[in-house]
Structure prediction request, 685 residues.
Amino acid sequence: MKEVFWKSRYFKMTAALVILGMLAAVFGGKIWLKDKIMLPEDAHKALELEGNAEIVREFGLQTIGASVINGEKEWFGIRQYDTEDWSSVMRVEDREGNVLAESFFMDRGTVEQKAGDYAVLSGKPGEWAILNCNTLEFHETHLTNLQLNESGRYYRGRDESIPGRYLWMVYDTEKWGMLHESRHQLIFPEREGYVIENASDGPDRIVNLGTGEIVYTAPEGHHVKDGTDGMWLMSYEGVYYLLDDSFHMMLDGKVFADASVEDGMVFGHLITDWDYSHLLEETDGLVMSYKARASAFNSQGEQIYGAEAGIDYLGSIGNIMVLYDGQKECYIYEYMTADGVYETRTTEGFFCYMDEEDGYMLACTPYTNKSQRVRPKDDQIRLGIFPEDYKWSYVDLSLEPVLPFVFDEASLSENGYAVVYTQQDYMAIIDLMKRGEYL
Amino acid sequence: MKENNLMDRYIKMNFKLIDNEMGIACVVIGAAFAFLSSFVGILLLLPLAAAAVYFVYKGMRKLFYESIYGPSASLFQALPVSASQMVSGKIFTGGVLLLLLPAVMLAAGGLMAALAGSGVGNYVDSLLQNFVDEGALTAQLPLILAAELLVAVIASFKEAAVIFYGVAVYQSLPAHLKKWYMKLLVVIEAWAIQALSASAVEGLFTIADLDYTALRPLLDACLQAAVLAILVKQIIKLMEKKYQLA
Prediction:
């Protein structure tokens, strides 16, 4: 047969044509599909993209996890393949789908946290590592429950071999090195370069991460909650107050019913009037009743926002505060303009969640339960839990949706990239900035 | 006469034998797909497709039956070609006809897309979309396209070989066994070979829950080539037996 084949001009011509056709298909296909992502028809229908975002990488039905771990310079998707024995391969890919690294040390790994150029990855119980998103180098550690501080320069972890022992590490340009160890719970405040030691059997302390110096020891009964540029948030018997950089009380001794600090500001319910006539007795002591109003102060102690009575402060990110009007039963979004004045922006039919990185916020339509409009709890979103029965999308800082609310799940965005899920297992990474309005 | 010229001349003669049917089938199927976007085109699709099938049938009948077992058999038997040359020449000719039909369909669709103003680019995308809907990832599409082209070519020759094999098996039966039910059995056998070989790899990938990558069409191409090789060997054996007996 071979002899017959090679002796015919027609056969040889056909073979040559097929080879040419295959080469044309490969190179022509590469040129044709450059910068193009094609999705299955049903996924197109589900996504219903309307030009404000671009799908930059699609994942097949086999994929059970994906994350954007560095979207600024060159983003990476992490894929896991579900196999029968539940072992899986973690891969880091560029936006064209080229594999940059795979077969990491861990099975079923997930991205726990992203900070600066680093990502905390967790795998099997007891397997934690820090990935440098630029170099793809792993820093493996025997510590668990790793947490990076906001810049990614420091991390803390728990040493499982010694109960109650925590360690923190500092990263210099060469290597990770142990700086300090403690038997206290360690908290990274919003303030860069410090760690808070919360001890059950001793005073709270603030430690300078760079030098190891204990810069403040709280009095008995007082606790250090958080810190931001210019202020430290303290609590004492259920109320919150502020200390300045010299650890002196700020705001003329004003206290909050609850408060959080961020970007050099404090947001919370400022207690305006104690009402001792409504003392409530509880089994473990007395709880005071008081009037409190949602307020915001800057680090100079100037009040920049004060809500009307009955408005509850829920949370804030960047220039937006989320409030709740108990009487009207509606959410209020207060947006701080360039002049430092708060303006109310309203949303219709959806709730916003905060993602301060890139000007896009995660949002979802409410789930109606027993004629009540219910939204997922903020804690669930922070933990990456996206309850069913909601439809997710993204809004810009003017609270305008950039995409229709069609996703069954959606991750917090990272530098304008976000992982969206639809039709159960189908997922894609979308570029929110592509053709979208960016404030 | 050189041997390679002989083989080429034999193939050319086979093309001549069925060129009318090939031409008409291509024109008819091209017309059917070119006007598919219009209402009249949809109405005419079935009759035109049936006409194309009829002319393909006529071509195949001439190629694999009439020139071997029919009235013109003695003329073709007089040609100085070996059984393997004859079989490969006929399968090649039949394969080209079967390959031309989808090529004409695609070209007609592209032409109409260009004329209708929807754009050749959109048409190409819609073709690629079929692969994506099957589960292919965009990055894999160029390799998949190349491999699927290989599959299409080999599968066309294999389909021609299946038809030839069916005809040869039935004709090789003793006269007393040439009954309608034997014809039916041979048709079922040919159909089973075609159906199994065409869907085996895809079925395995579906069962094993594997992604649609270039590996699938490459394995498919290997399977089609293997089936083609087996069929060609079997047909050559049958032809040698026939000529020895003759």
